[in-house]
Amino acid sequence: MKVTLITGASGGIGEALVNRLAERKQDLLLIARNAEKLEEQCIQLSKRFGINAQFIAADLSKPDTAEQIFEETQMRNLEIDMLINNAGIGSGGEFSALSLRSELDLLQLNISSLVALTHLFLPQMQNRKSGTIVNIASMASFMPIPYMATYAASKAFVSSFTQAITQECIPYNVHVLLFCPGLTKTNFNAAAGIDNEKGAGLSSDYKNAPAQTPEQVADEAVKALDQRKQFAVSGRMNRLGANVLALIPNSFITRNFAKLYRKRLKM
Ligand SMILES: NC(=O)c1ccc[n+]([C@@H]2O[C@H](COP(=O)([O-])OP(=O)(O)OC[C@H]3O[C@@H](n4cnc5c(N)ncnc54)[C@H](OP(=O)(O)O)[C@@H]3O)[C@@H](O)[C@H]2O)c1
């Protein structure tokens, strides 16, 4: 059976994408850690949309998880015709003060598991001469961000890696989309531990900053897929921001981000 595999499917942008794809009658394989939530989602999706929705509860911040997921899909006879690498976590604060374990887990989830899932499922797509891979990066991929150093660097990796394999995949008719959301109203900041006073230093009026809803982001991602785009930024203001950022040297951006953050936190 052909399915779309989506990581981080239990909340935020991933859950919104799941709902959009289910409306289009795509069969789905949902991945996240919260088994209870995933089970409930699958029951509801099957009832509402008449699709086959399955899940695997798995922690992608662990090194062997991607391989375990691959093996499970083979056992279930699932053909992954679309892979959406959406699961990701952030972190904020002074790099040296952050927990090394959490930073390394972030790299495993945002980078290594994304690379592993792509490496495991891509050969089958190449053999079939069809398939789609969507990698979710971020506006943060466009610049180094002091006090959010590891997260921004992880998304820069996703961007560079995805743009490179996009070209490698063209002879195999495998479509690759690099999709970059900006600030979105999800659980992301709370999960990253940056919904606190230190997080506020990363953006003064963060709570009032213009943000998209996960549904708006999912709509734009689906539109980019329909248009077979290789790269898309979600939101008009973010697209404008991305164009402006491209003109500004990183040294200027980082110096000013750092100054602002230190000023707000009176460091
Ligand atoms: N929100 C934003 O402002 C924003 C902006 C730009 C880019 N993005 C990117 O968009 C993507 C989705 O973010 P979001 O805002 O939707 O975040 P979110 O609301 O925190 O949702 C994250 C999803 O990933 C899952 N997840 C977290 N850790 C996991 C792990 N170790 N293993 C497996 N699944 C895990 C979560 O489910 P469980 O907790 O059940 O595992 C949840 O389903 C991320 O890659 C993020 O970097 C977000």
How would you describe this protein?
Keywords: Coiled coil, NADP, Oxidoreductase. One of its GO terms (molecular function) is oxidoreductase activity. It is a single chain. A 7-stranded parallel sheet has the order 3-2-1-4-5-6-7, sandwiched between helices. It is α/β, with parallel strands linked by helices and 267 residues long. The longest helix is centred in the middle third of the chain and has 29 residues. Helix content is 50%, strand content 15%. It has one domain: Rossmann fold (3-Layer(aba) Sandwich), CATH 3.40.50. The protein has 10 helices and 7 strands. The structure holds NADP nicotinamide-adenine-dinucleotide phosphate. NADP nicotinamide-adenine-dinucleotide phosphate binds next to α1 and α6.
